[in-house]
Specification:
Blueprint: E1 2-4, E2 17-23, H1 25-28, E3 32-36, E4 42-46, E5 56-60, E6 63-69, E7 72-78, H2 82-94, E8 99-101, E9 105-109, H3 112-120, E10 126-130, H4 147-153
Parallel strand pairs: 1-4, 2-6
Antiparallel strand pairs: 3-4, 5-6, 7-9, 7-10, 8-9
């Protein structure tokens, strides 16, 4: 097994044979994991930051090893303007589900709870199988007691 601890040069050299390592989004979001490329080469990853789809993570002789994220079920929700996009993003975010923004539509994780919310609110959507790369904005969001509730408690 080849251990990868850092990515030195993410730019693919031309002329080399591309070898894919296919991985699901949730595994790719991790910093420590193992995978097997399509040629049978095994890799162990221990990285400071997670990898992204399309990155060349290892080169040897005439081979470039590339990360290929697997497609997954998503919902494609179209919008016509920024106000609609913001409202849709708020509804999805309120359920704590990830989203990815494109120019004219929003991709949302294909979960049953999201589907029910879209149907309940009469929001048209299409099921699709795509590479899903949601934005990551907050890592420690919660609804438990925090600074605000501590502040409000001094007035009681």
């Amino acid at each position: 097994m080849i251990k990868i601890k850092e990515i030195k040069d993410a730019v693919q050299q031309t002329g080399n044979h591309a070898v894919s390592l296919k991985v699901e989004r949730r595994v790719l979001a991790k910093r420590r994991w193992r995978g097997e490329a399509e040629d049978g080469t095994e890799f162990g990853f221990d990285l400071a930051l997670p990898l992204k789809h399309g990155i060349c993570f290892h080169r040897v002789e005439n081979k470039n090893y590339l990360i290929k994220q697997k497609v997954e079920k998503v919902f494609r929700v179209s919008f016509s303007n920024q106000k609609d996009a913001a409202h849709l993003a708020w509804q999805v975010g309120n359920l704590h589900f990830p989203a990815q923004f494109k120019d004219t539509y929003l991709l949302v994780e294909g979960d049953l709870a999201v589907q029910y919310m879209l149907e309940r609110n009469s929001i048209p959507f299409q099921e699709s199988m795509e590479i899903f790369q949601p934005i990551v904005a907050v890592s420690s969001h919660h609804h438990g007691p925090g600074k605000l509730s501590n502040y409000l408690n001094i007035w009681q």
